[in-house]
Each structure stands twice: as structure tokens, then as C-alpha cells.
Amino acid sequence: VVKSEGKNGYRFYQPQLGEDIKKRISSENALTEALEKKQFILFYQPQVNTATRELCGMEALVRWQHPDKGLIPPSEFIPLAEATGRIVALGTQVIEQACEQLALWRKQGIRLVPISVNVSAQQFNQNVVVHTIAACLERYDVAPELLEIEITESSMLAKHAEIESQLAELRKMRVKLAIDDFGTGYSSLSQLLRLQMDVLKIDQSFIAQLGNGSPGLVFVKSIISLAHSLNMTVIAEGVENDEQLRLLQDLSCDQIQGYLISRPVPAQEITAMLQKH
Ligand code: C2E
Ligand code: MG
Ligand code: MG
Ligand code: MG
């Protein structure tokens, strides 16, 4: 009976859930294989001084260099990596590649600026991120000040006790700490005070709303003055046009990052920028 119904008959006996699970297992296997084959590569997006446009640092943003599908953006694999725990192994590869790149630039005698890497809350399980960073800094002989980690405001709020003690360890190692996507997670002033982060990155949704008379302007203005009173460097994310740049200059925002300056680019393009200076 099953045979006579062909493919559709087979589907009839397997609930839709079964198909979803099969798809998920195959994507999970693909992710595992990609990690083994080192198919993840880093692009870098410049962060520049708002007033002088001098290159001050860059954010490492991971891409999956898929053999058939080409470059796959993080939005298409980070959620699954988070859901399956693969984000921990992926995060380790990201930290390693960033340190390797810094060591390469140093060997080439190029002026070094810090690289910031995005870190998931799961990388704080069993102190993984602290161990990984310590090992990579040593292996590649990289100064800790050249590595910065970005952790989103919302993930920090979720598991704060565990994360905070490790952030303190990283701070002791002189690794730089940045709070990412700020403004989307509702942290309290007391949390901000306690965390002692070096850098605050204003989420791009607030920058997109910047414009004369918009409530976004008041919000960004108060974040910047709050961050400055806590001695943090402020970076505006997602700066796309000159009007936003001008407003951010008026508000004394320290650095900007966004398509107006550059999209995330392969390492060689950063090499060229660093050599110009
Ligand atoms: P994020 O850390 O907030 O990174 C900024 C995102 O905004 C990047 O997207 C960047 O390409 C994009 N962006 C930069 N400038 C502009 C702009 O002017 N306009 C607009 N519309 N977008 C801009 P991307 O590379 O697709 O990464 C998306 C997110 O994926 C990141 O957000 C981060 O949360 C996550 N991600 C990327 N790499 C890693 C990683 O190595 N580990 C982890 N855990 N997450 C990562
Ligand atoms: Mg980030
Ligand atoms: Mg961000
Ligand atoms: Mg983000």
C-alpha cells in the first residue's frame, strides 16, 4: 500500500515534524563539516575616528565560504550555530583567525590597530572564551590590547553573574571589552557601572533613526554623554550617510562604523588601508 502511493505516500506516513528534523540534522551536519574543513573566514569592517576619519580599529565579521553556494552571511548560520552549541567551536576559530591575522600584519611590519570579535554568551560556558583568548594571544604572540571582544547587551543581561566574573578576568589580562547593540537590551545604570566596559557600541537601529527632530537624536545624545561620564569610548554602528555623520560629530561620538566608511572587506583590503597610513 505504501509503495503504490509513491513519494507522497511516504510523506503521509511521516509527519511534517519528521521532515523538519531531517532538514535540521542535515544543516547541523553541514555546519560541523564546515568547521572541520575551516570554511569560515573573517571579513573586517573599519572603525574610524569621527572627526579625523583615521582608522582606529576594525570588527571581524564571520562568513561561510561555502564550496557550492559561495559566501554565506552570518544571519543564515549563526542562529543554528547558537541553537546547536556549534557557536562555541565557531567562536574559537574566529578568535584564532583574528590573532593569526594580527600576527601576520605584525610580521609584515604594518601598523597595528585592534580587532574586535563578536562573542556569544555560550562561549562563557566553562570559561571557554578566557582559555581560548589566553592560548591564542600566547600562540601568536599578540598584545592583549589588540584584541577586543564584543558581547551584546541582551546576552550580557541573560547570564550576567557567570559572564561578569570572566569579563573581570579578561580585563585583568588587558583585553578590551565592548558592549554591542547597545540600546536594545535595557541594562540599568548600575549594571553599566559595574561592568566597566571599555567601549559602547550604539545599535544601528538608533543611528538609522537619526535625523533632525527625531526622538532618536535625544536617545543617542544621552547614551553618548552617559558613556563618556563612565569613561567609555562610543562607537556608532550602521552609519550610512553624511547627515548621520554630521550629527554624530556634533554629539562628540568618538568613532563610527558603517557603509559610509566601508562595508566589511577581506583582510587584504584592510592591509592596503593600513599601509596607506
Ligand atoms: P553586529 O556584531 O552588530 O555587526 C554589525 C552588522 O551590521 C554586520 O552584519 C555589518 O555588516 C552590518 N553593518 C555594518 N555597517 C552597516 C551599515 O552601514 N548599514 C547596515 N544596514 N548594516 C551595517 P553581518 O556581518 O551580517 O553580521 C550580523 C551579525 O552576526 C553581527 O551583528 C553579529 O551579531 C553576528 N556575527 C557576525 N560575526 C560573528 C561572529 O564571529 N561570532 C558571533 N557570535 N556572531 C557574529
Ligand atoms: Mg558586533
Ligand atoms: Mg552590533
Ligand atoms: Mg548584532
Automatic annotation (TrEMBL):
Residues covered by the EAL domain: 24-277
Entry superkingdom: Bacteria
Protein name per the record: Diguanylate cyclase
Organism of derivation: Noviherbaspirillum autotrophicum
